[in-house]
Amino acid sequence: MTVTVDDRIEREVYVPAPIDRVWRVLTTPEHIRAWYAPGGCEIDPHPGGRLRFRWDEHGEFHGMVERAVPDALFRFRLALEPDHAPSDPGEATLVEFALSPEGPGTRLRFAESGIRALTVPDDAKAKHAEYATLSWTSALEELAAIAAASHN
């Protein structure tokens, strides 16, 4: 049986909040815990910086920041497997958030790519793509709500 795997997940959301607020919610641990990693987060948002996202039910996922341009772009590699720092491109996907001003708010574009290059069987790639699509969609909705309601 052949399994078709999307290589890229893309989402876009308009956030009725200024770009600097969206950036803070996107990149600071206390906010990331609310919209993405409830078990905690450690992040050094500079190129080469390490990051870790924790979930009680899934474990701790490691990554490395590739690019961070305040109020514009946040890109990092994120391990496919918990409790493992990726050392090979086939062990991680590329996650990217691009921000741009739009009227009084912010357009947030998200992409996770490199799914086909993962060194796991195709059915595991497809399962990751399916789960990631649902979880990122939910996370982006939560991020947008937090940024819109936040005043810090």
Automatic annotation (TrEMBL):
Residues 17-146 form the Activator of Hsp90 ATPase homologue 1/2-like C-terminal domain. It comes from the Bacteria. Transmembrane segments: none annotated. Pfam families: AHSA1. Belongs to the AHA1 family. This is Activator of Hsp90 ATPase homologue 1/2-like C-terminal domain-containing protein. It comes from Streptomyces javensis.
